[in-house]
Amino acid sequence: MATTAASRKRIAQGREAEIFEYGEGRVLRLYRDGTSPATAEYQATVLRAAAAAGVRVPTVYGVETFEGRPAIVMERIVGDDILELIARNPWRIWSLTSLCARLQATLHDVTAPSSLPSTLDSHRRRISGNADAPAEYAAAALARLDTLPDGDRLLHGDFHPANVMLAAAGPVIIDWGNTTRGSPEADFARSDMMLHLGEPPEGAPWLIRFGARFARTLMIGTYNKAYRKARAVDQSLVRSWQLPVAVSRLSEGIAPERSKLLKLISELIARDA
After folding, report:
1. pTM (two decimals)
2. Fewer Cβ atoms within 10 A, N terminus or C terminus of the chain?
3. What's the gap between Cα 164 and its chain centre?
């Protein structure tokens, strides 16, 4: 009998993919219906490049098509993500949030492979190709991108506590689908925005939803302090990146965030007028 996703144990899920057991020490990252096979190929390539640069990520064993959906077979990381750990152990919010921030700062010391797309080009494509973004917002964001410098650092592109697993041997960074090569301030601006506005995915445990609502301010302050202690930050450049990062986020079509994003974008445009 052919093995199906329904017959396997699902151990996690997010907006982009579901994670299933797939043999000893392995998992199947099964992308949602409608996802292009190129998405899986790209993330596998990025994971291999990050590993080659010395970053601890899940090992990739192969890319497959499973029940008509793209998938990656990868190492199973035994542990919990930092957001789950904070939700269950709220007294650890300072140490775990600081760990996450320091890890991102260390990541930004890595020179990215030249094969990765630039952060500037990635945001241009997202903003230009997003019909749902108000035209005036897209125009303002694209104009801002024309003033920003490029860079050569390894940027995760979606770095937040839920994308860091704490395994027995140490932290492991997951979900590398938005990885680019560019300025660390772009990645930091994105993470800061996620901490302010991000919503847990559908189906997230109530403890995580509760924590996202009530621990947000504390996490933001702790994260900023720890990151800035570990790595110098050009605050003017972070401010400049906030507008294109927010408009680019609209392209991800996350309904619970849309109204908050539109409000933020309006405020950023008014601030910089």
Report:
1. 0.87
2. N
3. 10
Which domain CATH number covers 90?
A: 3.90.1200.10
- Which two structure tokens, joined as six digits, stand for 179? 């990885």
| Measured distance CA(141)–CA(143) in Å, rounded | 5
Final residue of a structural domain among 55, 75, 95:
75
Classify burial at 84, counting beta carbons within 10 Å of its beta carbon; exposed 0-12, middle 13-18, buried 19 or more: buried
Comparing CA positions, the residue from 250, 233, 247 lying closest to residue 145 is 247
Query: So what's the pLDDT on residue 9?
Result: 87
The tokens describing 158, both together, are 């979606």
Which residue from 187, 149, 158 is spatially nearest to 81, judged by alpha carbons? 158
Q: Which pLDDT tens digit goes with each residue over 235-262?
A: 999 999 999 999 999 998 888 889 999 9
From 98, 111, 119, 107, select the one nearest 228 (Cα to Cα).
98
Give the model's pLDDT for residue 159. Answer: 96
φ, ψ for residue 125 (rounded to 5)?
-65, -45
Two tokens, residue 225: 């302090």
**pLDDT exceeds cutoff 60 at 93:** yes
Contacts of 228 (CB under 8 A, 6+ apart): none
pLDDT tens per residue, range 103-131: 999 999 999 988 889 999 999 999 998 88
Shared-domain flag, residues 107 and 140: yes
Q: What is the pLDDT of residue 113?
A: 85
| Cα atoms in the 13 Å half-sphere on the side-chain side of 164 | 23
Tokens of 58: 């899940």
Reading the block at residue 251, the tokens are: 């392209």
| 217 token code pair | 């301010």
Q: Give the range of the structural domain holding residue 205, as residue numbers without chain letter.
A: 79-272
Phi and psi torsions of 200, nearest 5°: -60, 150
83, 211 in Cβ contact below 8 A? yes
